[in-house]
Structures are given as structure tokens and as C-alpha cells.
Amino acid sequence: MCARLPRLLAVVVAVSPLLASCSSSERTGTAFCRQLAHEIPAIAGPITTKTAANEVVSRYERLLDVAPLTIESDLRTLTDVLRQAAKLDAQDPAAAQKLADDAYKSNQAALNVKEWVISTCAVDISTGQTVAPPRTVPPSTTSTVPVTTTAAP
User: Fold this and answer.
1) Mean pLDDT, residues 88-98 taken together
2) Cβ neighbours for 94, distance < 8 A, ≥ 6 positions apart
3) How far apart are CA 26 and CA 45, in angstroms?
């Protein structure tokens, strides 16, 4: 029994990183932009039905799964307001007022997400339009400065 314990521990130690990598999402700007490219056509369109609203919430939740920590909190705030809007009973004035208040409170979070997405993915998340070429490493430039020497007298 004691001889099996070290082997079992070795297997657990070897397999744990593999299992952890399978269960966690990559939370990078690149992963986020890649996911956004799949979600943006439906996110930027008008929301006219509860079904469409629920689909947009699902798309934002998928973005939230890969959101870098830089924007995770702001994106969560925005997703929560969208979820609240999707569940809204328009006949309930108190619920409509709460949604309006929460939407107003989430304005800064929405602006933060929009600015981050523009600077990282070169897309305006509110319209779905590409706004600038994606950031790339500028080409290296080397220049030589002519050196002049004079002979010492």
C-alpha cells in the first residue's frame, strides 16, 4: 500500500495541470477579440424581442468567460444590466425605473468596455464597426548617423 502512494501522488501531480488547463478559459486580449469576432454581428444589431435580448445576454456571457481582468468587472456590470433588461416586465413601472437607474449607474462601465475594446480589438462594440486597424508592432527602423571626423593638428 505504501509503495502505491508515491506513484499515485506522481500521477496526480502530473495530471493536475492538464485538468486545470482544460477547465479554465484563456483570459487574454487576443482570446477576447477572437470571441468578439464571433459574437459582434448579433451584439451590434437592434434588440426587438425577448428572444433576441436573451441571445445578446448569452453572447455577453461568453465574452465574460474570456474577458481579461482589466475589463472583467466592467463587462460583468454591463452584462448584468443586459440580463435585467432581458427579464424586464414592461408593465411594471417600478422594474422599469430600476432598470433605468441601473443603466445610468452602469454608464461608466459601458464606456470603459467600449474604450478597451476599441484600443484592443479595433472594433466599436456598440456598432460592430471596425474603427482602426488592429494594433501591430511597428516595423523596426534603423538609421545611421553620418560620423565626421577631423584629424587632430
Assistant:
1) 94
2) none
3) 27
Give pLDDT, residue 67.
96
Crossing angle between the packed helical segments 69-86 and 50-66, to the nearest 10 degrees: 160
Tell me the CA distances in angstroms from 4 to 9, 16, 17, 43, 144, one per residue in order. 9, 18, 21, 54, 67
What does the chain come to in residues? 153
User: Is 53 in contact with 82 (CB distance < 8 Å)?
Assistant: yes
pLDDT of residue 45: 80
Can you spell out the DSSP letters for 57-69? HHHHHHHHHH--H
- The three cell numbers locating residue 18: 492538464
pLDDT at 101: 96
pTM of the model: 0.69
Q: SS3 of 71, please?
A: helix
What integer pLDDT is reported at residue 12 of this predicted model?
A: 41
